[in-house]
């Protein structure tokens, strides 16, 4: 990424960037709730959302609007925020701890591994029902972790950019093939439809109940990532350099990779495979505020949330009244951007 | 006060013994040079000091703390090290890298205090990097990167400073700059242990030398005691002679060992 000259007003700059992103998140959120087949004016969106906590607001809007906002669009927008932030955060942490600018939960095979686990669970009949909101994220976490371990074993401890990408590709392919195998041999028509739709990366199935686990994981991960930010900075000194600064780099990296699987896995469980968000958003964040871990990760999370809300809005609108899975859109946009980055970073491979 | 004390240290990497039976001490206020041909085990020996590698036998103490039973975090408040690993591939500023040196002194959620900022500023000043503190480290030359690494080590406020080939990649002026900085730090009471490839620097700037060959200590003592023609030929495969500039300055050696005129000079004449 290009060099951003930063000077002693670095603190003012990070506050400015975060404030701007928070404002953008609110605006994007209101916009996304307001737009769709039934258009609800943004001024009304505010009031409908505020009504439960602001007692003097008169409910003078149509009941249909209230249902659309509370049951359909708001959970979807909040899911987009949580998933976008989780993917960007996990991508940012992956890039920091592997010292690899191309690391990302999708390219590392985490998403495919999680997808396989979720498919298996669905076909076995454990995905639905009251426990689904817990068992699906748990399975996705374990599947993602398994895939990540496979890639790291393949790529070796040194984990050059090339072996990491190829390893992720191979593991992703195998997991994808196994997923197809499971679907073709065991799934019913309804399960197939569910899995295929989910795998493409869509937020259409968002419900409040599905959000509890990923939401809690995101909050926890943000706190831990910001607390451990200094240690992530220290990792840039290399394993020996980190040891001399008091850090066991291998143990820290292992724990961080578990965290990445947890974040990305739980996101995949609710939203399927959404590519390139985890890869590209941290680069944009470090372009804005540099690579100091706490700045970069906090900005990544906010930027990821804004981005996915807007991307999902676009996915709903481009082929209206039908809609695209947002994963299709991020892949169409992100793929070429990734190729451009590869071109610029050829020397790293 | 002893900065570093090693006794009977042996390190195996895989089935191979890389370092055997090493005894070594570095006193506070002393600059000790670790020299030896490539692959003689210098870096491995240094790695035992910050627990990057665990000796299979022997004891390693840093400022009285046994390394094997002291946490890395605690050790990093006493010992700082620069390594030969390449870094500086991400968008951090020089100051952000030097601030990493304060990490061992801070709890996870502690903010940087005024005291920490002052220490970071002093470390930047001591290495001549203060005017570059807001520069992106990816734009630094090899020499500047080396100085940033030393500044970060100084920000740890260590009693023991360990440097692996600190003069690598440096132009002549900065080689001398670094070595003179190390002399100043030692004069202030720090124990300094460094590896050097350039025996001329070792002869001029170190109080004592430890010569490693194939993982074993083959000589210990002042440069004048250690670097004789036989050792230069047998261990390093070079022809050379160490001379002390003149008799008058030799008499001062006891009192002001670092008076430039008293520094021994190594003349090298080629391979054996």
UniProtKB/TrEMBL annotation, chain A:
SUPFAM superfamilies: ABC transporter involved in vitamin B12 uptake, BtuC. The keyword Transcription regulation does not apply. Keywords: Cell membrane, Membrane, Transmembrane, Transmembrane helix, Transport. It is a multi-pass membrane protein. GO terms for molecular function: transmembrane transporter activity. Its main location: membrane. One of its GO terms (biological process) is siderophore-iron import into cell. It is found in: Cell membrane. Pfam families: FecCD. The chain crosses the membrane at residues 12-33, 77-94, 106-127, 134-155, 161-187, 208-232, 252-285, 297-318, 324-342. One of its GO terms (cellular component) is plasma membrane. Belongs to the binding-protein-dependent transport system permease family. FecCD subfamily. This is Iron complex transport system permease protein. It comes from Halopolyspora algeriensis.
UniProtKB/TrEMBL annotation, chain B:
This is Iron complex transport system ATP-binding protein. It comes from the Bacteria. GO terms for molecular function: ATP binding; ATP hydrolysis activity. Pfam families: ABC_tran. Transmembrane segments: none annotated. Keywords: ATP-binding, Nucleotide-binding, Transport. The keyword ATP-binding applies. InterPro entries: AAA+_ATPase, ABC_transporter-like_ATP-bd, ABC_transporter-like_CS, P-loop_NTPase. Residues 4-239 form the ABC transporter domain.
